[in-house]
Every structure is written in structure tokens, then in C-alpha cells.
Amino acid sequence: MTARPFNPMYIQPGTRIGLYTVRDQLGSGSGSVTYLADSPRGRKVVLKMSLHPRKGDPEDAIARERFLRQTDYLFQLRGVPGVAELLGLDCYPDPLAGYPYLVQEWVPGRKTIIDWAGSPQPLGKIICGWVLLAATCGEMGRRYIRHRDLTPGNILVTPHGVPKIVDFKSAIGLGAQRLTATGAEYVPGEHCHHSPELCLAILRERATGKHEPYEYRPTDDLHALGALFYSVLTGEHPFDVPDESDESLREIAHTVPARPSALNAEVPWGLEKVTTRLLLKDPAQRYQSGYEVAQDLEAFLRNTREDWTRPFLMPRQDGARLRVIRGGQAEAPRGD
């Protein structure tokens, strides 16, 4: 009998992949599949395997390059505590022509930042997590890495309250070439976390039919970070954006969201101040670096007489906005 060809989508529990033993499948998308596995010493890790072999169909070259590029960015960010650590990279079953896979730190519980904030947390722990996330954005900016998809599904929180960015499939770095179309409308990531300037560029392209390159900047990622902070404080996304229509894009581009304290009276003024600045329409008036955000948050911690042990709970809201902020876990980006 002829052995069945290897398929990354159907790896059985107990299978040895390099040094690791597969336990269970965690999820999959159009570009990769993710498994929980054990290291030789029993440490849990994540195996993320490309669905496209290293020496496969030439039409899969873009998908292979995208997978390897995210691995490169994870390697550059090794040691940054706000990023799930890259532990290894290999190919299976053939080391030269097989399917590339990366080994990454496992985040116990797999709770997104929104799910984690859905139960009472000490206020000080929330702010410390925000400082870490902001500093991580600052380090990405310093290394010319743009994440382009800072959504709740891509930020998991450990049981100790440490946020970890887990996915860089949409990221781009200094000198990296766009792998697909170059227009603003093809910038990857969830539309609900686009910046106002990106939304305006997309609207302009739709109106004229002419696609122009869009330079994604750290201020785009920081606007997405502001939307995340807003959701934690209020239980709502700052904008009513149920789809990718022109109306939704205009909402982000022009509508000033309600102050977080208007939706939740428990919001400390310092967190509202930082969040509001992150969501300003003019990128020149927003923070220019995540390090600036972290600095302001640390100053608030030092200089404010606040009970940092008091529990803070993200309000439970109903409706479309809550569904929006719980989204953002799609595997395949629209473009690159």
C-alpha cells in the first residue's frame, strides 16, 4: 500500500513533530494550522504550521513568504515580554521540502484581552498590562515593524495578567515588499481597527477607482491600541462599524466616540485621557510612539492617589459593538 501524503490539517494526537508531541488542534485558517504540543520536558508549546510546503506549487509562494516573514518578525522581537516568544523554527516531515512550522510560547487559558477584562481585575494589574502593551508597540516601532492587526483575538492574557501579542501574520517591516496589491484597501487587518487616515485612503480609492500605496505608520497601530483600551474601559467598540461599507469607514474617519467615563463612571481620568488621545483623528496629534503612551500611564500610576487594588470590571454591553470587539480572529489577511 502507498503511504498517504502528509496533510498538516490532520495531525493526530501523539504525533512527534521534531522534538514535540502533538496534543490537540487549537485552530486553523487559510494559511496555517495551530496545535498544542508538549516539549521533551513536558512544557506546553504552540506549533503553528504552514499549509504550504517549502517546495510546493509556485502559486503558493506568497503564502509561504508571508508565513516565513512573520517568523522573522517574531525572531526580531525575541525577549520582548509583550510578545509570545518564538522558541524554534523547522520543517516537517522533510527538513528541506516539507511544511514550515514555528514553535511559540503557550499562553495558558488562551483568554483574549476582552475576555480577561470580562471578570473583575485589580485596577493596577490592568494599567500594568497596558504599560507593557504600549511599550511593546514602542519596541515594534523602533524596529520598524508594523503589526497592522492589533485586535482582541491577537492579544492573549496570561493568568497573571501579562498580555501577549500572539500573531504577526499581517505584519510588515522595513524594506519588506508588499506581496499582493499595494492599495490602501488591501492593507490587512480587521476594518473595525483601521485608523481614520487609512479609512480615508480606502474611501478615496473606492471613489476614484485608483489604488495608491499606503504607508502604514506606528500611529496606525496606536489608534488600534486605543480602540482596544476603549473596549476594556467601556465594553463597547468606540465606533459603530458592523461591516466594511463606506458608511462604517466614514464612522471611523469622522465620528468622535463618547468619552469612556460617559459609558462607565468607574473609568479613572488618566486612562480616559490616554485612550482619548490615542483615538484622535489627526495622527500628528496622537502619540507618536508606544513608549510615550507607556510613559504617560506610568506617570498616572506614580502621581495619582488611586486605590490600585480595587477591582475594575469591563461593563457587559449588548448589541453589535460587543460582537465587533470580540471579533478579529480571522486567520487570513485580505492582502499584504
Helix-strand pattern, N to C? EEEEHEEEHEHEEHHHHHHEH
**Biggest pleated-sheet summary:** 6 strands, antiparallel
* Rg calc: 20 Å
Number of domains: 2
CATH class of the largest domain: Mainly Alpha
In angstroms, what separates the terminal alpha carbons? 42 Å
CATH superfamily of the largest domain: Transferase(Phosphotransferase) domain 1
CATH fold call of the largest domain: Transferase(Phosphotransferase), domain 1
Biggest β-sheet: strands ordered side by side in the sheet: 1-2-3-4-6-5
What is the beta-strand fraction?
Answer: 15-25%
Could you tell me the mean pLDDT?
A: 90
- What is the percent of helical residues? 25-40%
- Count up the helices: 10
**Unreliable sequence segments:** 328-334
The CATH architecture of the largest domain comes to: Orthogonal Bundle
Count the strands? 11
C-alpha geometry: globular
Q: Please identify the structural class as seen in this structure.
A: alpha+beta
What's the helix and strand layout?
Blueprint: E1 16-17, E2 20-28, E3 32-38, E4 44-50, H1 61-76, E5 86-92, E6 99-105, E7 111-112, H2 113-117, E8 121-122, H3 123-142, E9 155-157, E10 163-165, H4 196-208, H5 218-234, H6 246-254, H7 260-263, H8 269-278, H9 290-303, E11 311-312, H10 320-325
Antiparallel strand pairs: 1-2, 2-3, 3-4, 4-6, 5-6, 7-9, 8-11, 9-10
Helix pairs in contact: 3-5, 3-9, 4-6, 5-8, 8-9
